[in-house]
Amino acid sequence: MNERLKELRKALGLKQGDFAAALSISQGHLSDIENGRKEVSERVISISALKFNANEDWLRTGNGNMFNPMSEDEELDLYIGRISGGEDKFKKNLLKALCKLSEDEWNVLKKIISEMKEG
């Protein structure tokens, strides 16, 4: 389980400190878990499953996929939740700005991105 928790953190692209904060444990405690010096608690497993949609069976046994399947809306909610709960002001401000776009502004943005892909 220790190695799988580390694998989960890396798959999420999180640093130890950020992942530990999300799990409400210290970075040192997470380091001890990842290095096999401490066992993974039931609480850490439950929080990992809840906050990151991790497959509890995979965390415990390695069976199945790392993540539970999600609908597109659930996936979007998860990403937005990670950003809003994080410390990165740029990401938060970008989300706020995108949410304030009018339909015409969205169309301009789509056109710009489309041209970037082609060019």
Description:
With 119 residues, the protein is mainly α. The chain is 71% helix and 0% strand. It has helices spanning 2-12, 16-22, 27-34, 42-52, 56-61, 72-85, 89-99, 103-118. The protein is elongated and about 55 Å long.
Describe the global form.
Answer: elongated
Query: Biggest sheet, open or closed, and with what strands and sense?
Result: none
Assembly state: single chain
Question: Roughly how many Å apart are the termini?
Answer: 45 Å
Helix content: over 70%
**What are the segments in which pLDDT stays under 50 over at least 5 consecutive residues?**
none
Number of helical segments with 4 or more residues: 8
Strand content: under 5%
Q: Quick check: average pLDDT?
A: 93
List how many beta strands DSSP finds: 0
Order of helices and strands: HHHHHHHH
The Rg value, from CA coordinates, equals: 18 Å
Structural class assignment: mainly alpha
Summarize the helices and strands and which ones pair or pack:
Elements: H1 2-12, H2 16-22, H3 27-34, H4 42-52, H5 56-61, H6 72-85, H7 89-99, H8 103-118
Helix pairs in contact: 2-3
